[in-house]
Design a protein that fits this description.
Length: 438
């Protein structure tokens, strides 16, 4: 009995030693790799994409850790590529001069570009995550679709692109009228998104008016010539009167003749300035009933000196009965002026320019054609694009004249088209609605 206790104690001590060694082995070979893998996965879950296990052994768990590290490397590479693509996409939409935003189906702003933030006077962080009605309309509730054309509502109902004009509220409280083009977009997860392109109409109006003033500036030589001749006649009449007065030989009949001459020449100067003012006035795009004969004839008269200098013969073929169209008066004159000036540029060695008009019950078609060099087929589809220019006279133009014409005509409910073959001249057809046309 006395020998049993030491034996049992030794066995117990040995068992404990074996258990301790086994426990250390389990910790080193099993528990520690598991804890390392768990810690690395938790770090990645918390956003530390650089976390790794660092296991380099040959055991099953070590190989599992190494696979985990390889998977994390692949995940990091994929995320880096995704971030690069997101950065490129953001740079791409930031390059668009129009304001852009991407909305979820409930109106949450998911993406914006630089122009949108600049228009509203907010940072991208202030815009993202906001509802569209809060960001651009200053409202706490969605817009009522019965009171305003809501692109989200219209696309949800019809599933088709929408175009509308709205008043948006900027961060400083000012309101701007904008044109909104919205289109549906299906996300990779199948959810419906809406992409909105927002154009500031105030900028368009300024841009159009600046183009008008630029085109009018090109008339300076012709207008100066038209005013110079009457003024020269006025000066001769006044000098004759002065000489007669100094000689004491002024008679009433001669005085009245000279005064009538002065009066008529002043009327000519006033007429020139009146025609010029009709071109330059900014009417804000309001539509009016415009008689085309007088508008075309007055615009042609402003170009008569330039036509004579450029050896261009202008022929008008307008109906005897006056035709009218619905458009802003100054805008119509500007369209005719731009088309005629383009024709002049296409005939650097002279030629003929024809302006004619015809009508049916709904539309009036005005045609401006020339005998110039024509337009190459590959260029014909681009002539209305902004900043595209290819003048036959070798002068670099602004490339926005025809773009402005297209914008004016389409805003007035009409259309503009061009027909041309190289060497056979070009013809521009402007179609505008008649007053009262349905």
């Amino acid at each position: 009995m006395s020998l049993a206790w030491p034996f049992l104690f030794g066995v117990t001590l040995g068992s404990l030693a074996v258990a301790f060694v086994f426990w250390r082995l389990v910790c080193r070979r099993l528990l520690r790799p598991v804890q390392t893998i768990l810690a690395a996965s938790q770090s990645i879950l918390n956003g530390d994409i650089a976390a790794r296990t660092g296991l380099s052994g040959t055991s099953e768990l070590d190989r599992l850790g190494q696979s985990f590290d390889a998977m994390a490397d692949h995940l990091k590479a994929s995320l880096d590529k995704l971030k690069e693509q997101e950065g490129f996409l953001q740079s791409l939409i930031d390059a668009d001069p129009d304001s852009l935003r991407v909305l979820s189906s409930d109106g949450t702003i998911l993406m914006t570009n630089r122009a949108y933030c600049r228009l509203l006077g907010v940072t991208r962080e202030e815009a993202l995550g906001k509802r569209c009605y809060a960001s651009s309309h200053g409202r706490s509730e969605p817009c009522a679709p019965t009171l305003i054309t809501c692109p989200l509502h219209e696309i949800a109902v019809r599933g088709e692109p929408v175009k509308t004009v709205q008043a948006i509220r900027l961060k400083d409280g000012d309101e701007h009228h904008v044109e909104v083009h919205a289109a549906p977009l299906t996300a990779p997860d199948g959810k419906l998104l809406v992409v909105e392109s927002i154009r500031d109409l105030a900028s368009d109006i300024r841009f159009s008016h600046e183009q008008k003033l630029s085109a009018i500036g090109q008339l300076a030589a012709g207008v100066a010539h038209e005013i110079r001749n009457p003024l020269a006649s006025v000066r001769l009449a006044l000098q004759s009167l002065i000489k007669q007065g100094e000689a004491g030989s002024v008679n009433q009949g001669s005085l009245l003749d000279y005064l009538r001459l002065v009066d008529s020449q002043v009327d000519k100067c006033i007429d020139v300035t009146t025609r010029l003012l009709k071109l330059s006035v900014n009417q804000g795009g309001q539509l009016h009933i415009v008689p085309i004969r007088s508008a075309i004839e007055e615009t042609v008269s402003l170009l008569s000196f330039e036509a004579e200098k450029s050896k261009i013969d202008i022929s008008l073929n307008l109906p005897a009965n006056e035709l009218s169209v619905m458009i802003a008066d100054g805008d119509f004159r500007m369209v005719i002026l731009n088309l005629m000036q383009n024709a002049f540029h296409a005939m650097p060695d002279g030629g003929k320019l024809f302006v004619s008009a015809s009508a049916d019950d709904r539309w009036v078609d005005i045609e401006v054609s020339d005998t110039g060099i024509g337009i190459k087929p590959e260029m014909l589809g681009r002539i209305f694009q902004p900043f595209f220019t290819s003048r036959a006279d070798g002068i670099t133009g602004s490339g926005i004249g025809l773009t402005i014409c297209k914008g004016i005509v389409e805003r007035s409910g009409g259309a503009i088209d061009a027909i041309s073959r190289p060497g056979e001249g070009a013809k521009f057809i402007v179609r505008l609605p008649r007053p009262g046309a349905a």
